[in-house]
Structures are given as structure tokens and as C-alpha cells.
Amino acid sequence: MKHRCPWCGEYVKSPGDRYFKVKKCPYCNNKYTNYTKSFVNTVFINPYLAVVISISFLAIFGLISMVPYFVIMGVLLVVGFFLPSMPFEKESNDYVDELQNKAEIIFYSAAESGLKYIRIIVKNKEVFPICFVDENNKPLSPMIYVSTEDIKWQERECNCTMNFLQYGNIDKEYRPGTRFYIFYNNKKIGEGTLGEKCG
Ligand SMILES: [Zn+2]
Question: Which of the pair, 140 or 72, is modelled with greater confidence?
Fold first, then answer.
């Protein structure tokens, strides 16, 4: 699974398989990392993974049998499935002040977008290009890079907070109510409406 730079939105390489490895984005020169905060978040907010890890711990302490099985299963699940799906995070000692707005997004059906499991793609801190459009669907903006947070789902619709990345092409502030398209892998996957500014 490919991810974008959390500063500028360009596709960048994974920092690698070590937990605290930091890499520099070749496009904007800022540092990013993965597998750290988002890994911890995933462990604690994902009930499925929490159960798998709990079972693995019970096995480690000898409270259930098949110790090797559960340990291996836990490791495989984490390494093989969850970690590659983690977005990258900014590595900085300073507070990063980003413009934030609420947004309502309707993702197209699996048949239209080609994305069956939209909730694996759209998650906390994942970065997407969006383009604001007018009432005739004509572009009003360049491709602007945003990350999604506080996502609340209803079928294929979500309410979320959109963070406009610091170096993500934002050319001006757009008014609440402005419509936009959202893209993934160069494909339009949904459309949304900008909500109130946060903070
Ligand atoms: Zn970058």
C-alpha cells in the first residue's frame, strides 16, 4: 500500500521496517516516520487487533495452549497486514499549525470506485488529493493535499476533519459549503462538502 508525505502530499517511500526510523521527503525535505504513534493508536483503537494481541499474551503466559501458533499469528497479522496499511506521520519537534475544516464525504460504490473496503483506505492521518469545484463541476482549485481525522462512518458516507497539509498546495481558504472531489491512485473515489473551520 502506497502512502503520501504528511507534509506535502507526494507519494514517498516507507521509512522501512524499523519502528523509529525517520526519513526525509525528497520533495519537501521534511522528516516523516511510521509505525510509531499510529502503530500504538491502531493497537488500542482496533478491537480486532487488541483481541489477537491479548490472546497472544495469554499464550505467552501459558494460560492457553498452542503458544507458538498464537505468537506467530499475532506477529504475522501485525507485520503482514496492519503495518503496511499505516500512513506516515510528521516527525517534528515543533507544533504544526494546519488549517482544519470539518467535511462530509460520500464515497462512490465499490463498482464505481474499484475500492471495496473503503474503510481500510480512508483512515486516521491518511493523505488524499482533493479538488474544489463549482456548481458546474468545474475545478476551482489546484490539487490540494489533505489528511483525514476523526472519521465517523455511515455506510460509504463519512463525517471527518480534514487537515490541509502545510506544503499541500493550499492556495487560499475555501468557504464552508464548497464542494470537492477526492482522489485515490489518480482515480476519483468520492465527493464531499467542506464544513465549518475548526479551532
Ligand atoms: Zn513531502
Answer: 140
